[in-house]
Amino acid sequence: MTQGKSMTVNAFEDTHETKPVKPQSTATVHRDVRETVGEVRVEDPRIRCTDVNVYYGEKHAIKNISLDVGKGEVLAMIGPSGCGKSTFLRCINRMNDTVSSCRVTGEILLDGEDINGRHIDVVPLRARVSMVFQKPNPFPKSIYENVAFGPKIHGLVQSKAELDEIVEASLRKANLWDEVKDRLDDPGLGLSGGQQQRLCIARSIAIEPEVILMDEPCSALDPISTAKVEQLIDELRQNYSICIVTHSMQQAARVSQRTAYFHLGDLIEIGKTDDLFIKPRHQLTEDYITGRFG
Ligand SMILES: Nc1ncnc2c1ncn2[C@@H]1O[C@H](COP(=O)(O)OP(=O)(O)O)[C@@H](O)[C@H]1O
Ligand SMILES: [Mg+2]
Fold first, then answer.
1. N or C end of the chain, less CB within 10 A?
2. Which residues contact 214 (CB under 8 A, 6 or more apart)?
3. Where are the beta strands (DSSP E) in 118-228?
4. Tens digits of residue pLDDT in 158-171
């Protein structure tokens, strides 16, 4: 499958860098605002995005995207490189605030509250909406301290015993406890890549978020670690809403209930994962999932 993935990426780069995208499907070009195919809304959403646009200077990177993320749901975001998946993900916990050229418009509600509202403090927001990155990035601290750090700075604990409990519970939820319980004082960076990523997931759930954003969390992992993280995602879904960007359509199919297909800043299609992969409704989605465009 790795081969399929790299072919996909190369195909896109060729198309993108050397010649304009051919209008092989009628819907490919001449659009300022594109209607998304499929149901963007869910009942009782955790996150509701409406008409979100993102600009980096003059570049219009996200074009009028509306979508919901449900409670207890994994939403997969797929699409060719550079189509705006990471940019969109970063809107949800305001990570784009750190990019000076970046401007975000539109509305993003978390439990009905506007996350870009003037009274919103990004520090507690990022505790509610945590993020796991492509490359595992443990702090240069012990395994224990990696997990304990968040609860400490967010003032979630009163005592060492309580902190110990949170650390153990988080490592258990991340399916890492048995592998590290006898060496909690060892450096987090001494773990294998897959263990480091599960440590980062433990770190992110230690602060009891509502939403976990994952940007290609398995692309630096071997297949066994990937399988472990995928199993974990499925377990975590019970308690959190998860948005996962992935380059692997197989992974999207395995872990998500709904999938969103992005293309050059547009949300082309969104729907139940099985439907989208088995019976895509938009030509561009079909071209991508069949490997004709990627
Ligand atoms: N910090 C940035 N400054 C300027 N342009 C950016 C920045 N980050 C991303 N972009 C541009 O925004 C578009 C979307 O990028 P990105 O969200 O990283 O896509 P994806 O995650 O789908 O590969 C790309 O054209 C990219 O070059
Ligand atoms: Mg990305």
1. N
2. 131, 132, 233, 242, 243, 244, 245
3. 129-132, 211-215
4. 999 999 999 999 99
Judge contact between 125 and 97, C-beta under 8 A: no
Q: What number of other Cβ atoms are within 10 A of residue 121's Cβ?
A: 7
C-alpha 266/C-alpha 264 separation (Å) is: 6
Give tens-digit pLDDT for 199-230.
999 999 999 999 999 999 999 989 999 999 99
The reported pTM is 0.87
Q: Give the CA distances from residue 50 to residues 32, 68, 108, 169, 229, in Å, rounded to whole numbers and listed in that order.
A: 16, 9, 6, 36, 30
Residue with tokens 């909690």: 184
| Helix axis angle, 160-173 to 193-206, nearest 10° | 130
Q: Helix, strand, or coil here: 30?
A: coil
Nearest to 248 by CA among 267, 229, 268: 229
Give the residue extent of every domain in the chain. Answer: 2-138+209-289
Q: What is the pLDDT of residue 4?
A: 40
Distance of CA 22 to the CA centre of its chain: 29
Q: State what percent of residues in the chain have pLDDT above 70.
A: 88
- Asked if the 2-138+209-289 domain carries CATH number 3.40.50.300, the reply is yes
pLDDT digits (tens, 9 = 90+) for 105-155: 999 999 999 999 999 999 999 999 999 999 999 999 999 999 999 999 988
Ligand 1 pocket check: which of 52, 85, 87 to mutate, most ligand atoms within 8 Å of Cβ? 87
Q: Which residues line ligand 1 (CB under 6 A)?
A: 56, 59, 61, 79, 81-87, 99, 101
Q: How far is ligand 2, taken at its centre, from the CA of residue 208, in Å?
A: 25
